[in-house]
Amino acid sequence: MIRHLVFLNYADDVAQDTKDALMRDLAALQDEVDGIKAFCARPNVSPETGFIHGLTEMFWFDFRDVQARDAYLANETHKAIGARIMASLRGGADSIFVCDVEL
After folding, report:
1. What tens digit of pLDDT does each residue of 76-102 get?
2. In the predicted model, what is the mean pLDDT of residues 45-70?
3. What is the pLDDT of residue 85?
4. SS3 label, residue 87
5. What is the 3-state secondary structure (H, E, C) of 19-73?
6. What is the C-alpha separation between 24 and 34, in angstroms, rounded?
7. Whole-angstrom Cα distance, residue 21 to residue 93?
8. Nearest CA to 93 among 62, 55, 42?
9. In what helix (H) or strand (E) does residue 79 lie, and over which residues does it extend?
10. Closest Cα to residue 60, out of 36, 84, 79?
11. What is the pLDDT of residues 16-45, one digit of tens each?
12. What does the radius of gyration of the chain's CA atoms come to, in whole angstroms?
């Protein structure tokens, strides 16, 4: 199984409703992409604020395998949501961190 973790630093003017809609749209990919086992989104509540680098929100997908993860990455709906996420970040690609791990 692959866990795909994504940490975000939203721009200050992004409303909570917008963030919630992005996460709902990502969650809906479970019905569109075969092999998604789970989705979760949470705020970063770490007290180690000096180490979070502004990455105050995060989500993850659990994928059955690498092929399912790769299908998600190639999915057009995912790409459109990703573009919306990137447009909502404080500094574009400098405001996102992605990490995939094998479980």
Report:
1. 999 999 999 999 999 999 999 999 999
2. 97
3. 98
4. helix
5. HHHHHHHHHHHHHCCCCEEEEEEEECCCCCHHHCCCCCEEEEEEECCHHHHHHHH
6. 18
7. 20
8. 55
9. helix 76-88
10. 36
11. 999 999 999 999 999 999 999 999 999 999
12. 13
For the CA atoms of 3, 84, 78, 32, the dihedral, rounded to the nearest 10 degrees, stands at 100
Cβ of 50: how many Cβ atoms within 10 Å?
Answer: 7
Separation between Cα atoms, residue 75 and residue 55, nearest integer Å: 25
Residue with tokens 């500094």: 91
Structure-block tokens of residue 84:
């919306």
DSSP letter at 103 equals: -
Q: Cβ atoms within 10 A of the Cβ of 52, count?
A: 16
Q: How many residues does the chain have?
A: 103
**The two three-digit tokens of residue 33, written as one number:** 């992409």
- Cα separation, 19 vs 14, whole angstroms: 7
User: Does the pTM exceed 0.85?
Assistant: yes
